[in-house]
Amino acid sequence: MNLESVTDVVRLRWTFIGKVYGRLSVQLAIVTYIASTIANYTPFGSLDLPAYLGLHLLTGT
Predict the structure, then answer these.
(1) Of the four listed, 25, 27, 35, 59, which is most buried by Cβ atoms within 10 Å?
(2) Looking at the record's lineage, which domain of life comes first (predicted)?
């Protein structure tokens, strides 16, 4: 296995990681946007969604 094939493999891996990370960050942005939109309509006003869900799960309401 020569050096050129090693760099090709590394380059391919990094592009793959970059694509996956890019997709994840886009999904995270969408989820965050949806969550903040939902949080605005919760009874608690602009409380963040994780806290709202946690409270919801704790109280069982």
Answers:
(1) 35
(2) Eukaryota
